[in-house]
Amino acid sequence: MPLSLLSLNFAITCEGNELETYDVKQEGPNSIRAFVASEAGKQFSITYKNDLPDVGLFGHLYIDGERIHKHFLKPGRQRQVLGIRNTATSILPFKFQELELVDPDVENAPVVPEMGTIELRVFRCQVRRAEKYREYRIPDYKLHQGRVSERSKKAGWHHVGTADEIPSASSSARHKFSVDLKFLDPRDAPYASVKVFYRPRELLMAQGVISGDDVRSGNGNREGSEVNDRKRAREDGSPGPSKRHTRPTVKKEEISVLSQQIQALQAELNSLMDEESRPSVKRELRSPSPIVVGQAAGEVVDLTLED
Questions:
Q1: Which residues belong to the signal peptide in this entry (predicted)?
Q2: What is the pTM of this model?
Q3: Is 46 within 8 Å of 80 (Cβ atoms)?
């Protein structure tokens, strides 16, 4: 089932199947986070819906810390983001890929604290005026290149890349408008924020986010206890699991499949275990909001409205 917060619904669909969410936790009245299991080579899409009856939502979508989409959603409407727009009639679909680690002494690769995250921030707004725009312009959004420093401690992780180009709706069916919006939320306080941490399933199992029962039954949407919710943040920047699970039982025939990935993650897990007794403060690095307006201020925005 999708993640729901206030009047916002959010889901990630991978090749026709909605991804299960694990360790779901509401981190305040306007924020929710969860984990999903990613699989390298699989394409996926992101869907979000505005269930407010009379107020629009302006959404900003971030993947691996990069803003890759913005859209005004009318009351009661739903938006599906398949990938990065390449031309007026084609897109490059999202795809999970293996993350490449490079030697920082050889190549100047970033650490990227937000690697492995998909985040949607929405702000309530009302349309003051909308006028037909003269032409459709392709947004210049780019995903992260998928190369990070070995010091980032992200061995075995995934990143989001793109698959081969596919056709999209005809540009004649898309109406570009210049819209004067009145924002009802301050620029530093979204109406709702959804953050999903995606990791390989084997890593989530090793970290206790997915239990043996989850693997055998296929059940997700597991919520954590209040006591363990106060556990420290992981060294990689993602929150620790809010519910302690027992180690899953692994069959003999599964060991050969998982062993190579477990070995790749061993160094990272050892580091995490060394830090277990020392408390740390959860620190989340967020890029500044792209909306440079005050509360209840107006702004003229170029965007695509779907009929």
A1: none
A2: 0.71
A3: yes
Encoded tokens for 47: 């869907």
pLDDT digits (tens, 9 = 90+) for 129-174: 877 665 667 777 888 777 776 766 777 799 999 999 999 865 544 5
Answer yes or no: are the C-beta atoms of 256 and 208 closer than 8 Å.
Answer: no
Asked if 211 contacts 37 with a C-beta cutoff of 8 angstroms, the reply is no
pLDDT digits (tens, 9 = 90+) for 4-19: 999 999 999 998 999 9
The owner of tokens 């899409």 is 45
Q: What is the pLDDT of residues 63-101, one digit of tens each?
A: 999 999 999 999 999 999 999 988 888 999 999 999 888
Average pLDDT, the chain: 76
Write out the chain in H/E/C secondary structure. CCEEECCEEEEEEECCEECCCEEEEEEECCEEEEEEEECCCCEEEEEEEECCCCCEEEEEEEECCEEEEEEEECCCCEEEECEEEEECCEEEEEEEEECEEECCCCCCCCCCCCCCEEEEEEEEEEEEEEEECCCCCCCCCCCCCCEEEHHHCCCCCEEEEECCCEECCCHHHCEEEEEEEEECCCCCCCCEEEEEEEEEHHHHHHCCCCCHHHHHHCCCCCECCCCHHHCCECCCCCECCCCCCCCCCCCHHHHHHHHHHHHHHHHHHHHHHHCCCCCCCCCCCCCCCCCCCCCCCEEEEEEEECC
Cα angle value 153/157/158 (rounded, 5°):
140
Closest to 102 (Cα-Cα) out of 146, 157, 153, 147:
147
Could you tell me if 235 and 267 are in contact, meaning their C-beta atoms sit under 8 angstroms apart?
A: no
- Of residues 241 and 64, more confidence is placed in 64
Backbone angles phi, psi at 191, to 5 degrees: -60, -40
CA distance 111 to 149: 5
- What is the per-residue pLDDT for 296? 43
pLDDT at position 143: 85
